[in-house]
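Deliverable D2.4 — example input (structure tokens):
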């Protein structure tokens, strides 16, 4: 298997009062990637969790189904945005990058609340498994987001609006 580097999208803004930078970011990784670390072989977060390689994330997050793997599916993890406008912009930029590489879907282990945000943005998103309390105590689940609407006229108008609002 070939090694695919992860792509990180990051945005920074200095808070006017505290002068501290607030970062927004995500990591994109092909689901076909594999990395060897010592004697351990890893792929991507959802698949590794299902295979019991990640303590703290339950193996049954996909109801016992295998994790999606394919050249057209990329994982989008470690997603953090300082506000909704930035979140939309980062996702739109990620979708632009991913579709340019043949991706049709993303899979994410993320907060359940992101489903409604992405769906409202024009990206059909569905839960693939159960909700679990994770990390900060909030509800997380595996989401699959359809990118095939990227590039249609309606979507381009939404993205243009989001980018102009964040500039």
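Example output (designed residues):
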């Amino acid at each position: 298997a070939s090694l695919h580097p992860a792509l990180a999208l990051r945005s920074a803004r200095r808070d006017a009062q505290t002068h501290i930078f607030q970062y927004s970011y995500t990591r994109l990784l092909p689901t076909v990637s594999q990395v060897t670390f010592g004697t351990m072989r890893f792929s991507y977060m959802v698949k590794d969790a299902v295979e019991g390689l990640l303590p703290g994330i339950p193996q049954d997050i996909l109801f016992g189904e295998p994790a999606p793997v394919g050249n057209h599916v990329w994982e989008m993890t470690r997603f953090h945005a300082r506000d909704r406008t930035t979140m939309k912009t980062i996702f739109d930029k990620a979708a632009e990058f991913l579709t340019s590489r043949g991706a049709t879907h993303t899979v994410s282990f993320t907060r359940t609340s992101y489903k409604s945000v992405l769906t409202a943005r024009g990206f059909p998103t569905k839960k693939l498994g159960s909700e679990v309390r994770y990390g900060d105590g909030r509800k997380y689940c595996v989401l699959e987001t359809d990118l095939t609407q990227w590039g249609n006229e309606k979507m381009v108008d939404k993205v243009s609006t989001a980018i102009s609002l964040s500039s």
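Residues 1-5, 153-167 have pLDDT under 50 and may be disordered.
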